[in-house]
Amino acid sequence: xxxxxxxxxxxxxxxxxxxxxxxxxxxxxxxxxxxxxxxxxxxxxxxxxxxxxxxxxxxxxxxxxxxxxxxxxxxxxxxxxxxxxxxxxxxxxxxxxxxxxxxxxxxxxxxxxxxxxxxxxxxxxxxxxxxxxxxxxxxxxxxxxxxxxxxxxxxxxxxxxxxxxxxxxxxxxxxxxxxxxxxx
Length: 184
Hints:
Elements: E1 2-11, E2 18-25, E3 29-32, E4 36-37, E5 40-41, E6 49-56, E7 59-74, E8 86-101, E9 109-118, E10 123-131, E11 135-140, E12 148-154, E13 160-172, E14 177-183
């Protein structure tokens, strides 16, 4: 199947995800655009495990993959119009696929903002990982004590954002705690 879907890729061992486009896939392989951070391509090692995810309507598709190689092909390979133009892209083998209901149901934007969160019991520092009109996904070093929170961060334009919300889900990782915040 050939398409261009906005997705995020999170290599194991990296603190956050990066934006990519899924260019082509079949049942066993997936091809994406080159992941970039601060204008530089992200380097992958052969066999490196990653998670690639995207939202389509009310469903989140999550692929557990491992990196194979960087390839250069003609644009025609991914369904482009210019067979003489070449592009580089990433080749992954799909290990597993999961489907989750998108609890927010809103289009999400991958971000990387420092965040300050407060609840009735304490104050916490971390990162906003994605945001939408209805909620945020945040990562903290410590566990929140309460469900109702205030969230403060500076967006990409430098504007101070202050919102209130409630925790709708939480996931404990090896190092961090991840939270879904539904905005009031």
